[in-house]
Design a protein that fits this description.
By secondary structure, this protein is mostly helical. The protein is built from five helices and no strands.
Length: 160
């Protein structure tokens, strides 16, 4: 079995980014005296969403990349996938902290969305393409034929 060392190194970097996002939420909660929710503060709301967005996307993408690395995907592919994930996770909070409608907001938010969704789809399709679809199709057709034969036997018995 191949140990996913490349992905593990990127996950360490991502963990540091996640810690920074968590510390930002804590700092803003304290300075705004908002122990729960966002206290109506736009900056805190953006920090909470950047933190939450990280947790919504990083685990599933990282898990898929780990599977790809363990199944023998090229090191270059793993570096590209995980590098793009790190970039998307850096862009997102930058966009969330920018003024809505500003160039920084649009570039960072659009870039992070494009990269994140692209990674989700790319990893999922790559994993699906590696599944033994021919064996699955053979099994389904064997089961369908067996069901048809069973129904034919039932018909013969019922018409006696």
């Amino acid at each position: 079995m191949h140990v996913p060392a490349i992905t593990a190194n990127y996950l360490a970097i991502l963990a540091l980014i996640y810690a920074a996002l968590a510390l930002q939420v804590i700092r803003l909660r304290r300075s705004n005296a908002a122990p729960f929710n966002d206290g109506g503060n736009e900056g805190l709301r953006s920090a909470i969403r950047a933190h939450g967005n990280f947790m919504e996307y990083v685990p599933i993408i990282a898990l898929m990349v780990v599977f790809l690395e363990m199944s023998g995907a090229s090191p270059l592919r793993i570096h590209l996938l995980m590098g793009a994930l790190v970039l998307s996770r850096l862009l997102h909070p930058l966009g969330m902290s920018a003024t809505p409608g500003s160039l920084k907001f649009m570039i960072c938010r659009s870039g992070s969305i494009f990269l994140t969704i692209g990674l989700l789809v790319s990893c999922a399709l790559t994993i699906l393409s590696r599944l033994p679809w021919a064996a699955v199709a053979d099994e389904i057709s064997d089961q369908a034929i067996a069901m048809i034969e069973f129904l034919h036997v039932v018909q013969v018995i019922l018409t006696l």
